[in-house]
Design goal:
α7 packs antiparallel against α8 and α13 runs antiparallel to α15. The chain is mainly α.
Length: 292
Amino acid sequence: MGAEKDTDKKLSYCGELVYRQDRDRFLSAMTAPPDRREALFALYAFNHEISKTAGVVSEPMLGQIRLQWWREAIEECYAGTPRRHAVVTSLAEVVQAVKPTRSLFDTLIEGREGDLDFQPPGTLADLERYAELTSGCLTELALEVCSGQERVLSEDLRKAARKVGTAWALVGLMRSLPFHMRARRGMLPRDLAASHGVAVSDLAEGRDVPGVALAVKDVCSHASALLREARAVPARGASASALFGALSIGVVADSHLKQLRKVGHDVFDPRLSAPPALRGWSLMVRSVLGWY
């Protein structure tokens, strides 16, 4: 279907970065029309740069400085005077061509500030809010990028995009839970954990106790509900094939949800390290049908 990397064609800097660091969004972007893919690669490369902030700095102040650098870089993109940086240069072209909503970039950066002074989510609502800030807004930006100059997007479709992105993040946070628990940054809501008998010490020590799978199941059920709500909204206002390129990350989320169900939502199961079966096939079929 062309979703996997074509080794006969050299990817751009941003395309290569997204391919290596964010494979699922790379596959999703490849379902967009060819003339929209580079714009999505630039957007997702920017997201990678800000999302890794907490992991590459030794103290929160340095992270704030890094994120401020990106705030200023975005401002310069809108001013038409981008600084010299491979991702910024590509992003500036997107900004000048499409003029995506500036506040969405600011929200993404603000969402990553929360990573610098980590506090585990107390409730599922807290986790959903974090997922919306860091991924829901990104999918709304992707929707704008894919709609291009048309930009006739209903508020309902924008909300649907945010729900798709939020659901995707919830699934990703659950799949990466063992890694984050080992780093004492687990994103399992404390109220859900407690309701299934998981102690704070279990989360802090990264213990594989039975209640973790039950709490993960609750989060995944909520992600599935968000996807259902989003899919009740028809993709109108621009070429359906173009919009699918932004919304198809929901198809990938479905693949991961199915994989999690197969292992009983046990995020410690080693089978989860393999890519979901038929992920590319699902993207191909749904792209033809226009079902996100």
